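Please, structure for the following, as tokens.
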Amino acid sequence: MKRLILLLLLLIPMAALAQDGRVDQLEKEVEKLKAEIVAMKNEGTGDDRITELERRLEVIAAEIERLKIGEAATTADESEHGLGPAASKIYRAERGISIGGYGELRYQSFEDGEDEFDLLRAVLYFGYKFDDRWLFNSEIEYEHAGEEVGVEFAYLDYLWRPQANVRAGLLLVPMGFINELHEPTTFLGANRPISERIIIPATWRENGFGLFGEAGPLSYRTYIVAGLDASGFTAGGLRGGRQEGIESSAEDLAWVGRLDYTGLPGLLVGGSAYVGDSGQGLDLGVGTQILEGHLEWKWRGLELRALAVQAELDDVAELNRELDLHGNQSVGERLTGQYLQVGYDVLAGRGGDQAFIPFGRWETYNTQDEVPRGFAADPANDVEVLTLGFSYKPIDQIVVKVDHQNFDNEAGTGTDQFNVLLGWIF
């Protein structure tokens, strides 16, 4: 893995220098041709030769324009197919290599623990466009200054038509906002919403295949993937059930689908569903269903985002016995989460690239909303979180986030924490 990353990093300056060098070479050739045409016209000779040189000049000028437009088109400024702006660069690139990435540096101060300063994530996107139909896209993530290294996604697309395209590989499961759209400039708050980390276990990726596309204001993604592994479920949620594409057991497969509507300016409303068994070699099925609905509305400087998710599991009593869980350690039969977030850019409409967005997010989640008969729910897992803070963007690709989070739970053991995050995409 380290050798692969080193090789890809070496390609970054090589690709950039090759592109810049080609443009410089062509511009010099243009000047040479112009001088030759002027000289021949002054001499009043070589009409056929002048015509040929002018045709050559037009071809070179078109090539220079194509290269320069290609460079501009691959900036990290627009999302494609649900992915973040930096992850989407390959869809706007010319043929060949596309490189992007993002990073997050976070400071946290805890009421009941030690303060922490962490290079949370350093991410590189590498894509390759074979032609107008075929492309490869990938995300390689270093977490905690390289303590953990993983492939977040790596897939091939066949772009058939806007309404129907094929995707296969290690895929991001298309549920909620954050799982696909997790670059730091795309959401408010230093930390991702907890409902989208433990019930929708983001970042959630799995090996699979499927279709995606759009028709007018509707867009969709539908995949078959390797299912979750119930042996990793806990009273605290489903996050431990991710197989992450690492020799994933495929004894149980799952279907996941998503549909979004964007028919009004600034509006996104949609939902997603996940259905499959999570037994993966256990002597029980553990049917798993996750339903999620989401809404986002941006109007002038206003940003509103809302999400609700519910997961239901079958055979939980049997699963508890299989995992030797007792009392209030039970995996939840039903898990619920929801949040409402509102922000307002006070610099909207004033021109320039800066944004200053005070925001508030109210969130509740319960990973043991229901448990099997004979087991008890831990009140500490019924949580309410209030997050207040701001995001400041000096330019679109850089963000500073500052917020305070207050955690309350039914056990009365809630705490506060203060977060500061510096994020960037490219």
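Residues 87 and 125 are 6 Å apart (CA to CA). Residues 1-19 have pLDDT under 50 and may be disordered.
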